[in-house]
């Protein structure tokens, strides 16, 4: 891999206290970016930022509730004040509240929609405000393959992840003339704490449905985000990249 693809750039990754978000933050830092690790869990954000800082990377932790307009604006402004710019924004924060449609509460439906879709919209709006002034920037929104095919028991999550695609495509049209790119990544089955908690037989059945016959790794998502953040994808905007090993192609 070409080193330092993000040298001299500053990036925010929401929901990066752990999991896929932390993997993206780590790969960005390894490639020269100054990184803001942001998470609603302030302790997780601080611990993860300290771990990267111990390796010599430029990184700070900024707690943020992505559904809060003022906090999202402050997050973006903090990055610019600390590092001098905001070049990459990854809207990754998300939650699940699974249940079948007749058992799902309206509260859980709205909460998942709010965190994923409102959070993505607020992050895209706040980041593009700064990036338009700079005349450049890359916004990467994390959807899910479930936004394409739908998952049993996830009308809220699948709906929100599909909505992120629509937000991204509309925003990409609006900000392209200012040099700002907006793209979506749709992860498939990725090895995380959530998949680790699945019954082995259920997980094995899902892996068997993947043409590449393996579960994805957080670095598979992080490396795709690196590509979309860098100049290697300089003429790419409004696209959806599936990182799912061919599942649901």
From TrEMBL:
GO molecular function, one term: oxidoreductase activity
UniProt entry tagged with the keyword NADP: yes
InterPro entries on file: KR_dom, NAD(P)-bd_dom_sf, Sc_DH/Rdtase_CS, SDR, SDR_fam
Keyword hit for Secreted: no
Cited Pfam families: adh_short_C2
Keyword annotations of the record: NADP, Oxidoreductase
One GO process term, biological-process aspect: monocarboxylic acid metabolic process
Residue ranges constituting the Ketoreductase domain according to the UniProt record: 9-192
Family classification: Belongs to the short-chain dehydrogenases/reductases (SDR) family.
PANTHER family, per the entry: 3-OXOACYL-(ACYL-CARRIER-PROTEIN) REDUCTASE (PTHR42879), 3-OXOACYL-[ACYL-CARRIER-PROTEIN] REDUCTASE FABG (PTHR42879:SF2)
UniProt xrefs under NCBIfam families: PRK05653.1-3, PRK07231.1, PRK12826.1-2
Name of the protein in question: 3-oxoacyl-[acyl-carrier-protein] reductase
Species, as recorded: Phytohabitans suffuscus
Gene: fabG_8
């Amino acid at each position: 891999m070409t080193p330092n693809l993000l040298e001299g750039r500053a990036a925010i990754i929401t929901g990066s206290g752990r999991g896929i978000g932390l993997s993206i933050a780590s790969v960005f830092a390894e490639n020269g970016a100054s990184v803001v690790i942001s998470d609603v869990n302030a302790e997780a954000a601080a611990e993860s930022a300290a771990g990267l800082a111990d390796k010599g990377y430029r990184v700070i932790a900024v707690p943020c509730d992505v559904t809060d307009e003022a906090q999202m604006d402050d997050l973006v402004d903090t990055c610019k004040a600390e590092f001098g710019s905001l070049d990459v924004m990854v809207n990754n924060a998300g939650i699940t509240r699974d249940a079948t449609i007749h058992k799902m509460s309206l509260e859980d439906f709205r909460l998942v929609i709010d965190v994923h879709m409102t959070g993505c919209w607020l992050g895209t709006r706040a980041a593009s405000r700064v990036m338009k002034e700079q005349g450049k920037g890359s916004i990467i929104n994390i959807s899910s393959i479930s936004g394409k095919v739908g998952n049993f028991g996830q009308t809220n999550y699948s709906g929100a992840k599909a909505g992120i695609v629509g937000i991204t495509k509309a925003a990409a049209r609006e900000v392209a003339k200012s040099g700002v790119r907006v793209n979506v990544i749709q992860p498939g089955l990725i090895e995380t704490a959530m998949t680790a908690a699945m019954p082995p037989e259920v997980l094995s059945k899902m892996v068997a449905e993947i043409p590449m016959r393996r579960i994805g790794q957080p670095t598979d998502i992080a490396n795709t985000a690196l590509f979309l953040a860098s100049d290697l994808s300089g003429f790419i905007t409004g696209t959806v990249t599936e990182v799912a090993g061919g599942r649901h192609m």
